[in-house]
Amino acid sequence: MAAAGDRFEMPDGSVYLVVTPSAETGGEYVEMEFILPPGCVAPPPHVHPSQVEEYEVVSGRFEVVVDGEWSKLGPGESASVPVGALHTFRNATDEAVHVRNWHRPAMRFEEFIEGTRAALDVAGVTGGRDPRVPMILSTSMLAYPETLAPGRRRERIAMRALATIGRLLRVT
Fold it and tell me: Which residues pair with 150 in a beta bridge?
């Protein structure tokens, strides 16, 4: 279980830092900080079936799409993703972005981040462009359906196929 200060460094250079773990809030929320380099691997469009997700930009520029509408956020600006809303985010700039993030309730979000990092480590992935990344990310997302899920049929089909290929190739 993640603790305050745990730092999960991803192969693309992204860093996910646990600020307030769910254990400290009785599961009410988990607070994290994301440090996302230019061109970082964005999560596929997804939904949180029972959570609200919030972002607040600390530094840099951050783009988030919620139900098809992109917003460009700068320092001090925020966005909220309602329960069940299709969304993703990206850093389309040439500088890192630092974002505070909350999932309410926490569900198993920090476990998802920790598990994804562990799976990437086990596979020996060292870069964001490694072709195994989509297989591992798909397998991880599908393992936490109550926390996050593919948002549309096309993502569900692709993620199931990538997870299956990952298992067949013994990547996941």
Answer: 46
